[in-house]
């Protein structure tokens, strides 16, 4: 009996790797001959990305999303009923993303402007049924808009190793490497010279933004996973306290914008605790916001770090991310995961992006309105997607494979092998 128990225990231990084993499978700590940490690389991050394949997949995804939005059930011949069903689908989506939500925990915004944003996005989605997306993509290919962008990306990113997630001994390493939107601006200028069709230029802009963002996101996602392990399993990683402090500072130094000269100077002067101060500020902010929700719901409870279990007004059990707001016009936290609908977050984000594409094909929309809606859309999913990495690491460390798989899907980065 003891032998059977021992064998079962052994199998269980083999099947459940420790956090440090998972860390070592994900990260490589490069040290010098004296055993001092030089830098950390993330496994699964690629610098030799296939942009042709990614853009082809993006095209197919956009067209598929559009077709799904306007799909009608087999046998439905009444066009009036079909139109009503599509309208309901779009309105349900707009309700979910709360573009016109007044219940904002004190956030200030103009209700009239939110009505306008919702109406414009609604029109943009409806208008997509008239748009020949295959023709639009074909025109971009014909005018070499995409191939030029790919060439610019390869020329620039061959000099940037995005798998290096921390340079603890070089407090200006990332800031000095920044070239603000160089690839993006060069590609857009080329597109404007080749095209005189504004909707096609808008489509090219969206593709460029998405593709370049996905490449850089690999590092940020990997850094957030690294931060989770550093904050929860520091003593197990074999690093000194000083090395850990410098690694965290390097992570946040890499996120200083190209115009952040003064912030870069601040990082240099306070290198030892620069990163942890930012990290702790995020954690404290989430904890403070949690107190507001605890007063409103008995079912609101901490899961881990910035994530809390709770329920929506529709009684859906979810995980809230209290470090990132639902969007730029709301003080409500974003929803990171639906327990009963694991694919819901990913689907909503995909629909937001479809609305952004549709906006470019909507006639007579002032550029200022387009910019406002794009800013809203990006505020709804960009930061949330990056912050998902913390939740992914939590599920990974806890061996929750189904939840980890769902978070991986909604992070949705085709280059990064999680």
Descriptive terms for the model:
single chain; 418 residues; alpha+beta; four-stranded antiparallel β-sheet; three-stranded antiparallel β-sheet; 61% helix; 9% strand; disordered N terminus
What is the strand and helix layout of this fold?
Elements: H1 2-15, H2 19-26, E1 27-31, E2 37-42, H3 51-69, H4 79-96, H5 111-127, H6 133-142, H7 145-157, E3 164-166, H8 173-177, H9 182-194, H10 198-233, H11 241-253, H12 261-269, H13 274-296, E4 301-304, E5 307-311, E6 317-325, E7 333-338, H14 344-360, H15 367-397, H16 401-411
Structural account:
- The chain is an alpha+beta fold.
- The chain is built from 16 helices and seven strands.
- The strands form two sheets. The protein has a four-stranded antiparallel beta sheet.
- Helix 4 packs across helix 5.
- The N terminus is likely disordered.
Characterize this entry briefly.
By secondary structure, the protein is α+β, with helices and mostly antiparallel strands. The protein has helices at 2-15, 19-26, 51-69, 79-96, 111-127, 133-142, 145-157, 173-177, 182-194, 198-233, 241-253, 261-269, 274-296, 344-360, 367-397, 401-411, and strands at 27-31, 37-42, 164-166, 301-304, 307-311, 317-325, 333-338.
């Amino acid at each position: 009996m003891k032998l059977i128990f021992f064998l079962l225990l052994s199998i269980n231990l083999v099947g459940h790797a420790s956090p440090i084993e998972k860390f070592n499978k994900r990260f490589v700590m490069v040290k010098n001959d004296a055993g001092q940490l030089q830098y950390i690389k993330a496994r699964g991050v690629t610098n030799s990305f296939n942009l042709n394949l990614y853009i082809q997949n993006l095209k197919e995804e956009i067209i598929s999303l559009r077709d799904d939005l306007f799909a009608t059930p087999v046998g439905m011949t009444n066009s009036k009923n079909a139109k009503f069903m599509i309208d309901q689908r779009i309105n349900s989506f707009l309700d979910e993303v709360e573009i016109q939500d007044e219940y904002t925990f004190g956030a200030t915004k103009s209700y009239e402007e939110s009505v306008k944003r919702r109406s414009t996005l609604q029109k943009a989605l409806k208008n997509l049924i008239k748009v020949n997306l295959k023709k639009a993509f074909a025109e971009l290919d014909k005018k070499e808009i995409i191939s030029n962008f790919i060439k610019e990306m390869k020329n620039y990113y061959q000099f940037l190793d995005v798998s290096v997630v921390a340079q603890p001994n070089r407090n200006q390493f990332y800031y000095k490497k920044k070239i603000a939107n160089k690839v993006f601006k060069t590609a857009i200028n080329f597109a404007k010279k080749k095209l005189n069709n504004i909707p096609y230029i808008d489509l090219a802009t969206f593709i460029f933004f998405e593709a370049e963002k996905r490449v850089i996101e690999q590092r940020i996602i990997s850094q957030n996973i690294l931060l989770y392990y550093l904050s929860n399993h520091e003593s197990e990683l074999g690093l000194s306290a000083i090395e850990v402090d410098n690694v965290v500072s390097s992570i946040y130094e890499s996120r200083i914008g190209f115009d952040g000269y003064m912030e870069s100077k601040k990082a240099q002067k306070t290198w030892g605790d620069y990163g942890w101060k930012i990290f702790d500020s995020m954690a404290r902010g989430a904890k403070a916001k949690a107190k507001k929700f605890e007063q409103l719901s008995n079912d609101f409870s901490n899961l881990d770090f910035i994530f809390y279990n709770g329920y929506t007004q529709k009684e859906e059990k979810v995980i809230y991310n209290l470090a990132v707001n639902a969007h730029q016009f709301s003080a409500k936290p974003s929803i990171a995961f639906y327990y009963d609908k694991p694919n819901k977050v990913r689907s909503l984000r995909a629909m937001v992006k479809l609305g952004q594409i549709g906006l470019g094909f909507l006639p007579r929309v002032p550029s200022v309105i387009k910019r406002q809606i794009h800013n809203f859309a990006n505020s709804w999913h960009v930061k949330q997607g990056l912050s998902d990495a913390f939740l992914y690491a939590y599920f990974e460390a806890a061996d929750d494979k189904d939840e980890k798989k769902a978070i991986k899907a909604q992070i949705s980065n085709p280059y990064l092998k999680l």
